[in-house]
Amino acid sequence: MTQKPLVFIISAPSGSGKSTLTSDLLKLVPNLEFSISYTTRSPRGSEQDGKQYHFIRMEEFDRMARDGEFLEFANVHGNCYGTARRYLREAGKNGHDLLLDIDVQGAAHIKQTLTDAISIFVLPPDRQTLEWRLRNRSEDREEVIQRRLVNASREISEYDKYDYVLINDKLEIACEKLRAIVLSERLRRSPLPRSEEDKKKIEVAECCRLANVRAKVQPILASFRGEGPPAHL
Ligand code: ADP
Ligand code: 5GP
């Protein structure tokens, strides 16, 4: 029987640690499928076709777009990326939920069509850390890193369009919070009574809700505007 999957959208400026977090999450949470996007960009480092992305040529991307095979698609950093409809169908058939790793334009588009989708924005602790992570990943040329940093400043200003905001400082902690968000959204829809453990998960997730993180986000935004921390810190 096909059931409506919960759709989790995760967005972040490149280098924030989104891929690291999603791959850890998929190992920790059962019945969660990853929507492997289609892209016209070349594979990076150890990336494999059909694992992180389906790497396709522009002609094939155009054909898929024309044939309505994408739920959404966008041009990001000069390359095309698209979410295939079939992942949503398959997750529904399998009784699983679906995780989308897409940019802010894609997230806005999905929210219009799938209004129940749950959106999560991942932020780095500050601009300097983001730059360090992009360089340390050693997978992009300098000009690409510079372009991603410029785009990051624009993308982070969109954080307040998301349901949850996750600051990826210590990886283990961020991963635990991400897991709590997914589990708490499932619990919210479950008729079963909640255990103490369930209640703790919901509490952890609530701390990441947009309304509860606004103050923590301000110094991060300031670092992207080139401002240092306030004098009293
Ligand atoms: P994104 O998918 O957002 O572009 P990645 O997951 O590729 O980012 O992470 C960028 C780099 O930062 C990688 O080298 C990754 O190992 C590292 N990284 C991710 N999260 C953390 C963290 N919390 N602390 C330190 N390094 C991290
Ligand atoms: P990267 O090239 O670093 O893997 O990804 C660049 C950006 O494209 C990231 O913000 C990522 O979330 C986004 N992205 C990946 N797949 C899709 C997709 O299918 N649709 C949209 N709109 N963005 C995507």
Structure description:
- With 233 residues, the chain is an alpha/beta fold.
- It has a domain at 7-32 and 99-224: P-loop containing nucleotide triphosphate hydrolases (Rossmann fold).
- It is built from nine helices and nine strands.
- The protein has a five-stranded parallel β-sheet with strand order 2-7-1-8-9, sandwiched between helices.
- Strand 5 and strand 6 form a beta hairpin.
- Helix 7 crosses helix 8.
- The longest helix is centred in the C-terminal third of the chain and has 18 residues, at 171-188.
- It is globular and about 50 Å long.
- The mean pLDDT is 93.
- Bound molecules: adenosine-5'-diphosphate (ADP) and guanosine-5'-monophosphate.
- The site of adenosine-5'-diphosphate has 14 residues, from helix 1, helix 5 and helix 7.
- Guanosine-5'-monophosphate binds next to strand 5, strand 6 and helix 4.
Task: Give a brief description.
The chain is an alpha/beta fold and 233 residues long. Helix content is 48%, strand content 18%.
Main β sheet profile: 5 strands, parallel
The low-pLDDT segments are none
Question: What is the terminal-to-terminal distance?
Answer: 56 Å
Q: Which fold does the CATH topology of the domain at 7-32 and 99-224 refer to?
A: Rossmann fold
Write down the secondary-structure element order: EHEEEHEEHEHEHHEHHH
Number of helices: 9
